[in-house]
Amino acid sequence: MASKLRIDSFHEINIVERGELSSDYVAEATAILLRSTQGFVAGQTIYVGALAREGVEKAVVESVADETTINLTEALKLPHARYDAVTAVLGDQIHVYRAVNVQDAVPDDGSFSVLATRAIDPDQQSTYFADSAGSSGYWYRFTYFDPTTMAETPLTALDAVRGQDFPHYASLGDIRQAAGLQNAFNLADRTVELWRGIAETEINSALAGAYTVPFNPAPAIVKSLTLELAAALLLVDAYGNGAYGARLKDARAKVTAYGDKTAVVTDENGQSLSTSNSVTGYPDANAPRSFYIGQRF
Q1: Does the bond joining 217 to the residue before it have cis omega, within 30 degrees of 0?
Q2: Which of 168, 171, 258, 282 is 20–30 Å from 191 (CA)?
Q3: pLDDT at 202
Q4: Exposure of 167 by Cβ count < 10 A (0-12 exposed, 13-18 middle, 19+ buried)?
Q5: How far, in Å, CA of 103 to CA of 243, rounded?
């Protein structure tokens, strides 16, 4: 069972300096002009362009020529417009650390060892890594790393995450689309991931009495419930209960309906996946009653 790990491509702990171009950059030039070069130094890795967007390029500072000019070790391949962002980072790679789970708690720092090194995906909000042997039997930590200077962010700067024994019910991209936020580039994947986890937990809790949870694989209706609930939670978090409270209430009502078996979760062949034979509702309000409130036996 593999665990797919998501790491922010540009977390604040890895950002060293921010600037912007003071004039248009012509491709193949080896110098860029900034409004100010303060905070930039030789040897730094920089990204020119909007982070996590198409067209951003990585470069290395060869020298800081003056208060507004930076020389690059290699020219950029694409043109860039005036006011484009220029961002210096501590490292352009990510170290993935892993430790064995012992007591269902985050292991001591000394228990973690480097599992893999992954280059940052600069045009994506998140950089992904799949541990082919991953499961809930492991915990993971991530650091940002510069292989040239060996500089590295602290091991404990980011929260440890535990591996998963089941795939998520919906992708982050699908949740963004369901919420109409696919172009919200300032919305971090970690925020979407947070509400996805909360939605999955709510769904598992509501359906646990009638089904084996977590679902693996998740049937289509569970994926749909996750998209609706996670999107509603995300929108309420971003814009308030007043604007999207009704949507959240509706999503939770649908989850409740499947939890009390008013509606039934089925597989791709239409077969019920319920593991419970309990009666959850009275089927016919007009039929003769076998028992009445207040009767004693």
Answers
A1: yes
A2: 258
A3: 97
A4: middle
A5: 43
